[in-house]
Each structure stands twice: as structure tokens, then as C-alpha cells.
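Notes from hallway chat w/ T.B., transcribed later so I don't forget. T.B. wanted the structure written out for a chain they're using in a teaching module, and asked if we could keep both sequence and C-alpha cells in one place. Agreed to drop them here.
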Amino acid sequence: MTPADLKAYLDNLISENLHLSTMIWGPPGIGKSSIVAQLTRKHQLDFVDVRLSQLAPTDLRGLPVAEEGISKWYPPEFLPRSGKGILFLDELNMAPPAMQGVAQQLILDRRVGSYLVPDGWFVWAAGNRKEDRAAVFDMPSPLTNRFLHLQVEPDFASFKDYALSTGVHEQILAFLSFRTSLLHKIDLQEPAWASPRSWVMASQLHKASLDITPAVGKGAAAEFNAYIQLYTNLPDLSLIFIGQGNGIKFPSEASVRYATTIGLAIRATDATEAYNAFKWMSEVAGMEWVQLFATDLFRTMRRKGKIAALAKFVQKDQKLQKFMQDFQEVMGM
């Protein structure tokens, strides 16, 4: 499933109050733990993120303390004791077998030693696959059989939705729209390689005018640096935003087209600029490019709180109204 599918599935588990132990499988850097954290914020749940690969068995089970001639286990302070939330056991299969054995009791029985998981808490876990070249251990079959298993793969559409909502740099997004295969590409020869997580870091570096190589590696950074030279060939977007785009042609090269559509969608500051950009695109670009632009524009305007104002402009434009009808039919809306 895609990250968006994963988020929707987990969201339903919470909404339906299904306290089923859930294991999320996927390559590193695609946002597994980030999605879980987003859902805790949405549902106003507490969140305890435990990295099992960094713990020893006694860190989870607790320390034995003698009381009245009896040894009792004192659980660690990070385990939840009340309320509602998600206990997230990250990097589960990177933990050694002894650690997995302690975690197994927590997952299967919702207890370890004298500790009991509160009724209002979900117990979820995540791990990488063997093919991701991660240092993982086999999970015992009694443990795997008690989990729901969700397989998640990198997906550009899911990343793009996240990127538009969180302000990832326009040029990063335009580049990945053109070179989607570089969204997630492990390079075993380098410590830095391209993933959704590292592209978000690269965005922060790029905004600060710093080299993105330390985040995504030499190969991806070299392609990105070559791509941003294309921005010298972009149409004058400022003229389009003020409604003076007559005579400006839609670029012929695909790479520049992606840069133009992304640039117009992200840079529009208000409904007037968004409408002028929308109108220009509908006049000069093919339907597939207008659809791509419109999808990104609507997300951006919704995030900026301008979607209602944009809708009023569109309702007064018969051509754009016709486009919206066709667009909704294509999208199954």
C-alpha cells in the first residue's frame, strides 16, 4: 500500500477502536513513524515512541527490586500508565532476539513483568525488510502471527500531498515530479541516499542555500543541481499572476513544464493570482497538465485558507466551470 493508504487504514483502526497489534513493514525513510505521529495529533492521543534496537531487555522489562523477600520488577518510566494513545515499537526486527522476546510478551499479552498496558492504548510496531539491507533479525512465528501486517512502499503522490502541506521547497517538488524514481533510491556505496525523509532534509538545506549532497547523496544532488538550471528558462510567472500572460507560451520541454506548473501552484499568494494562473494554464496547456496543476493548486489554496475565494472566481468563468465538471468526472468526484 502507499503511505496515504497506510494512513487511511490506521486511521480507521483508531476510529473503530480496534486494539489489534499492528506491524508496519517498509523501507527506511518513507515516513512510517511520521504517519503514526500525525494520527496521534489528529485524534489527540498520547504517543510513546520506543526504539527497541537501542534498548536492552531490562530497559523494557524493568529492574528487579526486593520487597519483603520477593523480587518485583519496576517498569521503566516511559511506558504509559493511563489515558489513551499509541505505544509505537519502532525498529522491532532490528532488536536482537532477547529483546524481541521481551517485546513479544508486551505485544501478545499487553503486559511485561508487573506492567500492564492501559486499555486505551494501541500497540503498534514498525520494521524494515531484509531486502532493504537493514540489519534485521528474523521474528519468531508466534510473534508475527499476532500482528496485522501492513506493507508500505514509497509513493510520489503521497509524498507530494505531504510536501505541499508542509512547505517543502518548490524546486525540490518540481524536480521529483520530473524524476519520481529518485524519491527513494538506496545507494549502498554512500551513507547519504535519496528517500522521502532525506528529501525533506534537503529542502531545509536548499532553503538555506546549502548543498543538499549530505542529505541525498552525490548522484541525486548532481541531477537536482542540473535541473534547477532550467529555472532560467521559466516563463515570467509574475506576469501570469497579474493576468498579463497573453502571448506567454507553455514550455515545450517536460522538465520545464513541471517547474512551471509547480511554481504557479505554490507561488500563488491569493485567490486572484491563483485564478489568473488557472485561467492561463487552461488556455495554453493540455488537459493532463491543467489537471496536474489544478490538483496542486487546490491543495495549496486549501492550506492557505483561500479555496473559497478561488471557487467564487471559478464560478464566474464558464470555461473553468466546464473544466471543473470534466475534472470531477475524471477524478470520480
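Follow-up for T.B.: The chain has two domains: 3-151, 156-331. Might be a good example for the class.
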